[in-house]
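Budget justification note: compute hours in this period were largely spent on complex prediction jobs such as the one shown. Inputs:
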Amino acid sequence: MIILIQCSDRVGLVAAISGLLSKKGINIVSMREYVDVEANCFFNRVVCEQYHDPQILISELSSILPEDARVNINTEPQKKIIVLVTKEYHCLSDILVRNHFKTLGAGVQAVIGNHAVLKDICDRFGIPFYLVSHENKSREDFELQLQTAINKHSYDYIVLAKFMRILSPAFVESFPMHIVNIHHSFLPAFVGASPYRQAYKRGVKIIGATAHFVTNQLDEGPIIEQQVIQVDHTYTAADMMRAGKEIEKAVLAKALKLIVEDRVFVYNNKTIVFS
Amino acid sequence: MIILIQCSDRVGLVAAISGLLSKKGINIVSMREYVDVEANCFFNRVVCEQYHDPQILISELSSILPEDARVNINTEPQKKIIVLVTKEYHCLSDILVRNHFKTLGAGVQAVIGNHAVLKDICDRFGIPFYLVSHENKSREDFELQLQTAINKHSYDYIVLAKFMRILSPAFVESFPMHIVNIHHSFLPAFVGASPYRQAYKRGVKIIGATAHFVTNQLDEGPIIEQQVIQVDHTYTAADMMRAGKEIEKAVLAKALKLIVEDRVFVYNNKTIVFS
Amino acid sequence: MIILIQCSDRVGLVAAISGLLSKKGINIVSMREYVDVEANCFFNRVVCEQYHDPQILISELSSILPEDARVNINTEPQKKIIVLVTKEYHCLSDILVRNHFKTLGAGVQAVIGNHAVLKDICDRFGIPFYLVSHENKSREDFELQLQTAINKHSYDYIVLAKFMRILSPAFVESFPMHIVNIHHSFLPAFVGASPYRQAYKRGVKIIGATAHFVTNQLDEGPIIEQQVIQVDHTYTAADMMRAGKEIEKAVLAKALKLIVEDRVFVYNNKTIVFS
Amino acid sequence: MIILIQCSDRVGLVAAISGLLSKKGINIVSMREYVDVEANCFFNRVVCEQYHDPQILISELSSILPEDARVNINTEPQKKIIVLVTKEYHCLSDILVRNHFKTLGAGVQAVIGNHAVLKDICDRFGIPFYLVSHENKSREDFELQLQTAINKHSYDYIVLAKFMRILSPAFVESFPMHIVNIHHSFLPAFVGASPYRQAYKRGVKIIGATAHFVTNQLDEGPIIEQQVIQVDHTYTAADMMRAGKEIEKAVLAKALKLIVEDRVFVYNNKTIVFS
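Corresponding output:
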């Protein structure tokens, strides 16, 4: 069982929380806390034994914490995700393989593509694939159909695994901090389109990838994970893209692991990650 | 003020410790704990406000902890170190520069060399240098003279900054877990002499450096910090040595910072590092 | 077309080679050379336009080079590989996905496992899988059956993608420098069995993986590629294994790319890699 | 002796160059070439034995190369540099230590600061220090005085080792591609002032440093070297700055080494680095 607590900071919070759990005989397996001193904000993640009545425990914890406390208890074995894709296979395949061998830490419910090319790999792994083309329709209509396909399944997170369409504010706001994107650059460098082409033109010596939550500021959402690799003058833009894909899939996999294990808090457009 | 606690694990330790501090009105700035489940061992580092009587606090903490608890409280502003060297300048110079600009986190009391070449750089920074040659004398005599030079100063740690002599068991045992060495390889690869030559012959694609506490097993002491860099077939053994020195000084500086900030526990010949 | 030349070094080799190609009107796309000064050995990789008669070109090149010259010309579009596995899926799946989407740079002809668990994933990608169990048979018999399965296909390289059996000297010698292994440690640290367990016990702060050619010295063959990641005291041996698998598949993929693009020379039990 | 050639590409350049050197009996120690296919530009760096008349050799090489060829021959043992600083010691000290022990690959002629605090460390190493304050004077006057101080010495490169003033276009244009700057971010992320503060606010998980040639586009000059390190949510802006300084000095040292060894070509606002 995982308890997540976020509230304004004050003296004695750790003592109060661990004292309450101790009094109720709940053994703590591990406990991580962090205080953002500048923002006076306290973050706490507790892994402990299952407790028979999580709702009671939330009430009791809330009663000893500051008024602004948000307490979540996660007792479910694993999260559910829906993956949105366009044409590139590398991130999706990596997710499907991990899902197939039960090491993703989450269950892939469905894949939705605005092109059909990735249907075949989904079929091979027995995962439902929905084609929702964006062609010849308004963004409203496109997103309505996306929404319809999504709603056929239950899910905790939507993962944009190289989904090359920009989602509308209305769509993004329906799933706050529950849409994860992989951006193919080391943000905030090379925001927007064709980051590898931009990186090539700028002559950088390192390229990267960034997994972040989607907000309505393009490529400006809270960063979950970043990784980089060295490149040099011999790399064409195409070489950078090829090399970058290796990082993209690794970064997205790492970010998903952190999210589905409830290790990520979001605050002030930044993440606190208890890795 | 920094409190370090190490004891066998049991339910409620964090609650007990933070409860006691809270009751005494000592504000906790940050708290890190780790449980080695396999060894049933609990490690705790608390940064908190100064308390007027640390001895009383140690007693009170000990009284609520398991019997095997070791409680240390560090109220001193900074640690003192003595540096042992041979001929290579890169690690020593890096330490002297940081010391000079007061960013080492420790104070260099003296430098002892078994060759004279590094006296000049010590003079330039106004740091006492002692020449203790190993030539034409037994190891016992050599170490006796080392000891005499060391004893002219007070110190918390002895730092071997490319000191190329192997110390006797008797000497090492006089300073258990208080001698820090920088080894010029990614241990446990290339234990012993000429690691760069060994690395070159083996054709490795990565080389590294390791900072560790000295024990009587050559290059087998608890590892504090390791870093690596990529090399390739164009590197001669001399090139590897040159590249490696950049890492050596970075690793030693990082390890010293961790140690003098009381961030390192040693247990079962391994370190717990609250970085 | 790729020309690979290896010979003892002397003045004017590059001029001679590029002069001959220029005279024959063969445009050089790129050229890489390296001289191992200590060993007086010259290595050259030329990417150039196709030439209608490679055999003639080999003769002409040989006639202007030192007597010990080995000249190879590769005109084939892609290499063929056979993959040997045991139970772990991560390296094999990564290879199968790349193979499926035609970005491996090689073609997977077949997979042979000494356990049956990975047959399913091969079936999903339409790749032949042969079960050759090692149980209840001598190593000679086991390897004879391996050989029989291998011989059903043509191939350039045999890839040990977490194949957990040690091959006999006779078997290895049948394919000199054509068997590639992924070892789950940063060699030469932790040679042999259970490297993650060894790494955990030693308390290292970095773990890695090594792709190398197989020779009859266990884990001592020429190293092709190595990568590492940071770990800390919170990693159990199982955590290290999990983290290490991410590196293993990346290292093996990178090594395979280098090999199938003819970028790797072997000399003195080391590799020259024109990456 | 090092020969640097840059010209438009055509078939047979390597053959022509190495043929000429071979004919003149000049032994080539190593040769690196690169063709930017998109720009049709050829870059060549040859390390060879000294030749008694470099001017003749330049003429002869030029006569066999395309008309736009720029041929440089460097026979001097080491470059001279002048270092500009403000208040931060870490990059300057690193340069002074390497200079003192003759491993910089260049000779520091003088240090110029717009504050006086770094005079002391220069004195300790016997390096001339000039105070040129920017206070109470126009940028023209300030740069005139800078120029006067610079002109007291001969030099090949001007190194901005955390010099916190922006130089005028006129000043920069006097030294095209001969002013090297260390920028305290992973460019192009966080151009301009306070990059660590920007990085902190953006919540990045990696920070870096960039060494580049100075042009009249702020922080937009050709990138020579970049390195990064991981950070996390526990880093304050001050922690990021501290960690970043370790990278800054390493990146600047690496870039200087590449430059003074004539390993860097500049083309289309990018660098070709034969590392």
